[in-house]
Design goal:
Elements: H1 2-12, E1 34-42, E2 48-55, E3 62-66, H2 77-83, E4 84-86, H3 93-109, E5 115-124, H4 129-139, H5 145-149, E6 166-172, E7 178-192, E8 196-198, H6 202-211, H7 213-223, H8 235-256, H9 268-272, H10 279-285, E9 290-292, H11 295-300, E10 304-316, E11 321-329, H12 340-343, H13 347-365, H14 380-395, H15 397-415, H16 420-459, H17 481-484, H18 492-501, E12 502-503, E13 508-509, H19 511-564, E14 577-579, E15 582-583, H20 584-605, H21 608-612
Parallel strand pairs: 5-11
Antiparallel strand pairs: 1-2, 1-5, 2-3, 3-4, 6-7, 7-10, 8-9, 10-11, 12-13, 14-15
């Protein structure tokens, strides 16, 4: 596997390229948007295909044609030089679209013997409506206001309405041909500014453990709980660490495609070299004590959901669906490398999509018989299913983040409840709701399609992959199961089922699991809220009781102090006997003693002191 990945990296990261064509002053380095198109599948003769086209809108200037793919996985420098050819020609995106249409016609005329598919990944340095207009025109995506407006708010959370996530419609490509498309928007999510402080800098911890461990332990046990923000890392550092955590999860998710625990992907070297934050700073987080941030910090640095949107378009050029177009933003990692091709493979989405490209390469080398995700060779729907599953698998890490957050709140409340805990609970509820606002609408739509697909599978009707009849634009299209079915090949229940139920082959949970876990966390949050309210009420009642007892016990003394503090000339209680030999002041103390004893006895009898504790 390592040799296989190394060979892929040499080709795909540009280690094998015509240096005379790309100089240090080339405009290639300055490209803002980056296109990576992959042509894969098999032709009528049974030969497997994997080609890569890279560049920008007007200048796709790197073309790699792979030949004689085999499954021996003995990929070396010799393999790369003898099986890969870089075409000297430069083509435009419109010419690339012509190739997609041509392969669609070939597939349709081969009676199922040929299956050549395309995946065009467009990574923009800031997605905007105006930028997207160029790609809509070339590929024939629906050219109406409603569809284009989805790209105007690309980096924001999706609207709550389910109809704002899934579109179907028809457009006209640059060649004048009619194009039908099914578009879906998905998002990756991670929690930014999670208010959990990893207290004390590492140097102080090491110094304290070496010279004054008892002082450090006392501080951690008695003081850190109340001043958790005093010596914590800065907000900017904490945010970088949170993002580094997210990228670690993305790399781990990507590795599941390759059944390799040590998989790091092509962009991992940038991560290791500190483009986000040094890895050792991540590791120290797990070793230090954790507390919840103080109320002041929570109010000034609220937690939020960081989202990356991915637009996925299944395209039918009139000869069957043979193309997937993905649209996303280039991640804002602080990379020293100015090469846009490298930047396009960084971040959460960049790493996940790059790992899928590598997997397609592996599947083609295995003639479509790879054990894990070998179905990627079947049709574009299989590719879309894998993309959605991996993006959602990454987002499901918010489950463990929220669960840890809630458990920490609950454990601190069990020790002592203070005013910061209701603020944490409220913020956690808001974060939960933000995630559910994404999960619920998308799940409801896709699950309804899945149920209809399962019902249809019982009768096993023949499904035509070219039977798409849609009006222009998307505003007049009500996206029903009958509309999406032609885009999902011959077994829609298989692909929809993977999204809803998960993929056991790569240990990926489905949408259903995500929804159930978020609902369970919501229930847990309600329980934590009840515990906070109970603990705070109990504490208030206890202190009120103590104040009441103190007031009652001190009231007689206050009266006596006031009485004997008066400057009378004659105070008979100090010298005159009242009952037998008892003088007035002595009799008063006897009466007070009996009264306090009776009060104490009644308190014990009625369990007043017991209920207060």
């Amino acid at each position: 596997m390592n040799e296989f990945i190394a060979a892929y990296q040499k080709v795909f990261t540009g280690m094998i390229k015509n240096k005379s064509k790309i100089s240090s002053t080339s405009s290639y380095v300055k490209v803002k948007d980056y296109i990576t198109a992959v042509r894969y599948g098999h032709d009528e003769k049974g030969s497997y295909i994997f080609d890569i086209y890279r560049g920008d809108f007007d200048n796709i200037n790197e073309i790699f044609i792979f030949h004689e793919l085999d499954d021996k996985l003995n990929f070396s420098e010799h393999f790369a030089k003898n099986h890969v050819k870089e075409d000297s020609a430069t083509i435009t995106l419109a010419a690339l679209n012509d190739l997609i249409v041509k392969d669609g016609k070939t597939n349709a005329s081969s009676n199922g013997k040929s299956s050549i598919n395309w995946w065009v990944d467009i990574a923009m340095n800031g997605v905007s409506r105006s930028k997207m207009d160029n790609y809509i025109t070339v590929f024939g995506l629906p050219n109406d206001t409603y569809f284009r407006s989805r790209y105007a708010a690309f980096g924001k959370p999706l609207p709550k309405e389910g109809k704002s996530r899934l579109f179907a419609g028809k457009g006209t490509s640059s060649t004048g041909s009619s194009v039908s498309s099914l578009s879906l928007f998905v998002q990756s999510m991670w929690i930014k500014n999670r208010p959990i402080v990893h207290h004390l800098p590492e140097k102080i911890v090491k110094w304290g453990n070496k010279y004054c461990k008892s002082v450090l332990d006392y501080y951690n046990d008695k003081l850190a709980f109340f001043v958790a923000s005093l010596l914590a890392e800065s907000s900017s550092t904490a945010t970088k660490l949170d993002k580094a955590d997210a990228i670690e999860v993305a790399v781990s998710i990507a590795g599941r495609l390759h059944d390799d625990e040590n998989f790091t992907g092509n962009a991992s070297e940038n991560f290791k070299s500190g483009s986000v934050i040094p890895r050792e700073q991540l590791e120290r987080r797990t070793d230090l004590p954790h507390w919840l941030h103080t109320l002041h910090h929570v109010r000034n640095n609220p937690a939020s959901i960081e989202v990356d949107t991915l637009g996925i378009n299944l395209v039918n050029t009139g000869h069957g669906c043979n193309c997937v177009i993905t649209v996303r933003e280039i991640d804002s990692e602080h990379l020293n490398d100015k090469d846009t091709s490298v930047k396009s493979r960084t971040g959460v989405l960049g790493r996940i999509l790059d790992s899928i490209r590598l997997k397609i390469f592996e599947v083609m080398c295995h003639k479509g018989s790879a054990i894990v995700c070998g179905e990627l060779d079947d049709c574009p729907a299989a590719l879309v299913t894998t993309i959605i599953s991996l993006v959602h698998a990454f987002s499901m890490d918010t489950i463990s983040s929220l669960d840890y957050w809630l458990n920490l709140v609950d454990s601190e409340v069990a020790t002592i409840a203070v005013s910061k805990h209701p603020a944490h609970k409220k913020m956690c509820d808001q974060t939960l709701q933000d995630i559910l606002d994404y999960v619920n609408p998308s799940f409801d739509i896709l699950n309804s399609f899945y149920e209809k697909a399962c019902q249809e599978k019982v009768t096993k009707p023949e499904i035509s992959s070219t039977d798409v009849s849609l009006p222009d634009g998307i505003e007049k299209v009500d996206v029903t199961y009958d509309v999406i079915r032609p885009f999902l090949a011959n077994d829609p229940s298989q692909y929809l089922g993977t999204i809803i139920e998960g993929n056991e082959g790569i240990e990926i949970k489905g949408f259903k699991y995500w929804k159930e876990q978020m609902e369970a966390l919501k229930s847990t949050s309600d329980t934590v809220g009840e515990n906070i309210a109970y603990s705070l009420d109990e504490k208030r009642n206890f202190y009120s009781f103590l104040l009441t007892v103190a007031t009652i016990y001190l009231a007689p003394l206050s009266i006596l102090t006031g009485y004997f503090g008066m400057n009378f000339d004659n105070m008979h209680e100090l010298s005159t006997p009242y009952v037998g030999p008892l003088k007035g002041v002595q009799l008063l103390w006897v009466v007070l003693g009996i009264s306090y004893a009776v009060f104490l006895a009644l308190s014990i009898h009625w369990r007043v002191l017991y209920s207060a504790t």
